[in-house]
Amino acid sequence: MAFYTRALINLCAMARRRFPFILQIYVILRDARHKGWTSPPPILVKARTTYTSKVLLSIQTRLPVGTSTCSYCLSRTLHVGSHASCPFKPKTKTVARAAAAAATLQLQASMSKVAAIAEALAEAE
C-alpha cells in the first residue's frame, strides 16, 4: 500500500499536464487492482513504465513544438513569439482576444493564417 501511495504522491508532484497525469494514475490503479495492493509487482512496474513512456512520447509528438501562448491575444497558433509580434497589437486586449478566437476558428475551417488574421482584424473594426 505504501508503494502505491508514494507512486501517486510522486505523480502529483511531477505532473505538468492534466491528461498524462490522469493516464498515469489510471495505469497505476489498473495494475494495483490486477495484482493486489500488498506488494509492488516488479514486472508490472517495468511494463507500466515502458507503456506510460511510449504513450507520453506519442502525446508529446502531437503537441505543437516550441509554441507559447501570446500574453496579449492568448493565441498559440496564429503567430510565433510574444506581444511584440502579435498582429492584434493595435487593438485593445479584449478586442484582440476576441479577434484571435475568431481567427483561430477560421483557421480551423481550412483558411490560411494570413487570411484568417486579416478577416478577424476586419471584423474587429
Notes on the protein architecture:
This protein is mostly helical. The chain folds into 2 domains: about 1-60, no CATH class; about 85-125, no CATH class. The protein is built from 5 helices and no strands. The model has no long low-confidence stretch (mean pLDDT about 75).
Give me some keywords for this one:
125 residues, mainly alpha, 2 domains, 0% strand, elongated
Low-pLDDT runs: none
Biggest sheet architecture: none
- Overall 3D form: elongated
Rg over CA atoms, rounded to whole Å, is: 22 Å
The rounded distance between the terminal residues' Cα atoms is 61 Å
In short:
The chain is an all-alpha fold and 125 residues long.
Helix and strand arrangement:
Layout: H1 2-14, H2 18-35, H3 42-62, H4 93-108, H5 113-124
